[in-house]
Amino acid sequence: MTILILGSGGREHTFAWKIAQSPLCKRLYVAPGNSGTSQIATNININITDFDAIKDLVLDNKIDMVVVGPEDPLVQGIHDFFLKDEELKNVAVIGPQKAAAQLEGSKEFAKEFLYCHNIPTAAYKSFTKDNVKDGYDFLETLKPPYVLKADGLAAGKGVLILNNLNEAKAELKLMLVDAKFGEASTKVVIEEFLDGIELSCFVLTDGKHYKILPTAKDYKRIGEGDTGLNTGGMGAISPVPFVDDALMHKIEERIVKPTIQGLQKDNLQYKGFVFIGLIKVNDNPFVIEYNVRMGDPETEVVLPLLKNDLVEIFKAISEERLNEIEIEIDTQTAATVMLVSGGYPEAYEKGKEISGIENIKDSLVFHAGAKLKNDKVITSGGRVLAITSFGKTHQEALKKSYQNIEKLHFDKMCYRKDIGFDL
Length: 423
Ligand code: AMP
Ligand code: GLY
Known about the structure:
By secondary structure, this protein is an alpha+beta fold. Among the domains are: 96 residues, Rossmann fold; 69 residues, Dna Ligase, domain 1 (2-Layer Sandwich), CATH 3.30.1490. The chain has 12 helices and 23 strands. The strands form 6 sheets. Strands 12, 15, 18, 19, 22 and 23 form a 6-stranded antiparallel sheet that branches. A 5-stranded parallel sheet has the order 3-2-1-4-5. A hairpin with an 8-residue loop joins β7 and β8. α5 crosses α6 and α7 packs antiparallel against α8. The longest helix is centred in the middle third of the chain and has 21 residues. Adenosine monophosphate binds next to β7 and β17.
């Protein structure tokens, strides 16, 4: 098969690394890709929301399958675009159709879905600029901290957690009336704060059947001890050590099954990954969010634990026979640590030469914000490289990643030295 992966981060390098191992994959393209994907696939520099350009690429290169990394093309309806086009309708697309992608594209849609299918989640109400005053009244009925969420996609920045009531009211006004997050905050979901520990569950579905992949925990804050600004993710561990059989059973029965059944009941066409963000309160799981794609850097720990041929799984998904696949998972723990540009997630410099990658033998180096320039790997983004290792425990895996990071260098390189600190 000829396969195209859309995206350019560590997640997409990990997909490329895994797909390139499949005997079913004859040719692999990544658009736009990065310095990591260029070593195992052909990078094509196009905009991943330019569907007409993607169509030309797919037809010119006789592509049989498109694996969509990030949410934007899915929320904008790339899968529907393929199905509606005579020349593209037989190309397999891994990712949900537009209506289902609203599970990530709209917080309100996701909350309605959760409520409608009796899936445990925080109590909520949503508001627009026409009923800001009702929003203030609702905030007064809640206890701090207050959770405000821009309804639409806001590049991971649309959730505010505030300790003070007046501040929460002021932010609500900024979001609704002053368009703090642009279009994304024309609606705001206010929800009850859930106090617990977060984890994520990853599910593959063909719309009818599902398979559960290993759980993972990511570390979103820039600072050690989970302090400072939110990032895309500074590291991850899989599986999550505190998820025992009893908790996994609750997650499957209370959350995964009703989610897949809910998609069917609501006629939401879904072939791809469901990323379920959870919070464990006492011993019970609640859904915080759905994402309609894999996580980054969660992919960098979840996929390396999967023993199956990923292309075989994707084929089974597109042919709605995922039930025929037996998922096999490595019994080790995987951990990844992100190396980021100094200053990230605020302003940072790019174009720094990265050295030492060739010296790493017993960890996987996934490139994220990195590109090739005159045969040298240079930084091109905030999150630059993810260093993934395996071990009997997450401590053992992390030790290997941290030892290997000592061999890597770029100007103003930063990373968190405490991944897994809370486990
Ligand atoms: P989201 O984009 O919905 O995942 O929210 C971003 C982050 O905000 C989550 O990863 C949680 O850390 C936090 N968060 C969101 N909703 C809640 C909630 N209801 N209670 C506590 N924390 C939350
Ligand atoms: N690491 C969080 C995400 O991919 O959304």
